[in-house]
Amino acid sequence: MTSTQVREARIPSASPSEFTFDPETTALLVIDMQRDFLLPGGFGESLGNDVGLLRCVIEPLAALVSVAREAGIPVIHTREGHLPDLSDCPPAKLRRGTPSQRIGDPGAFGRILVRGEFGHDIIDELKPIEGETVIDKPGKGAFYATELSDILASAGITTLLVTGVTTEVCVHTTVREANDRGYECLVVTDCVGSYFPEFHRVGLEMISAQGGIFGWTAPSDDVVSALSATVPTSATR
Q1: SS3 49
Q2: Which of the residues 32, 36, 121, 222 is marked catalytic?
Q3: Are 234 and 4 in contact (CB under 8 A)?
Q4: Which of 228, 225, 237, 223 is nearest to 3 (CA)?
Q5: pLDDT in tens, 17-61
Q6: Do 161 and 31 contact (CB within 8 A), yes or no?
C-alpha cells in the first residue's frame, strides 16, 4: 500500500477570490473559546449579551478542528486573561466596565478573565488535546506579548485559518496583526461569532474588502472540503 497527499488545498468560493494554501505551512487558530465568554450565566451574559450568538459557533468549529487534526494541521488555541495580581492588565482596560463586573472581580466561574480560574479556560467541546499549543494573551490580539510569532516561525507556518470570538474584537485584531506580519489569513465565517450580528457582518466584510485588504473569508463546509482532500489516502497495490 502507498499513501498520497494533495499538497495544495483550494477554496474556490472564498471571498474576495479563490484561496489556495499548502497544508504543511498552515495552522488553525482558535481564538478565545472560553467559558467566561460562552457559558450561560458567565461574564459575557452578565453584561447583557446573548451567548447563544457565540454558542452557534461551537458545532461547526468542533467539526473543523476534527478535520484539521486528521489532516495534520496544527491547532493553536488562545485564551484572553491576566495574571492573578493583574500586573499585566493596563489601567485603561482594568477600569473598563461596570464596577463589580470588571476584570479580576468575582464572577460566576471565578475571578473574571484571570488565568487559572474555571471561567478563563476553554469550553469542554473544544478542549485542546495533548500536544496542542495554548497561548495565554493579555490583550485582544494573539501576537501582542505572547510567544505566537516564535511558535509559527519555528513551525514554518505562513497561512492561518482563523476562528473564534469575537469577530470584531479579538479575531479582527489578530487578523490585522497577522496581516502586518506577512501571514495569509482566511477567516472561517461560521466559526467566528459576535454578540452583535451587525458587527459580525461588517467585520467579515472589512476583512475581504478592497481585494482582501486583511485576508479572505469562507464558510466552514468549504474549508472542511478543502482540508479533507489533503488527508492521506491509501492506493491499491
Answers
A1: coil
A2: 32
A3: no
A4: 237
A5: 999 999 999 999 999 999 999 999 999 999 999 999 999 999 999
A6: no
Rg (the chain; Cα; Å):
18
Which letter does DSSP use for residue 179 in this model? Answer: H
Active site residue 140: no
Residue type, 10: R
The reported pTM is 0.95
Name residue 181's amino acid: R
Residue from 36, 89, 121, 137 carrying the catalytic annotation: 137
What residues contact residue 217 under an 8 Å CB cut-off, 6+ apart? 14, 15, 186, 187, 188, 189, 204, 207, 208
Of 89, 170, 185, 191, which residue is the catalytic one?
170
Kindly state the cell numbers that stand for 73.
494541521
3-state helix vs strand vs coil in the chain, percent to 5: 35, 25, 40
174 upstream amide cis, omega within 30 of 0: no
Catalytic residue status for 170: yes
- Pairwise CA distance, residues 177 & 227, whole Å: 25
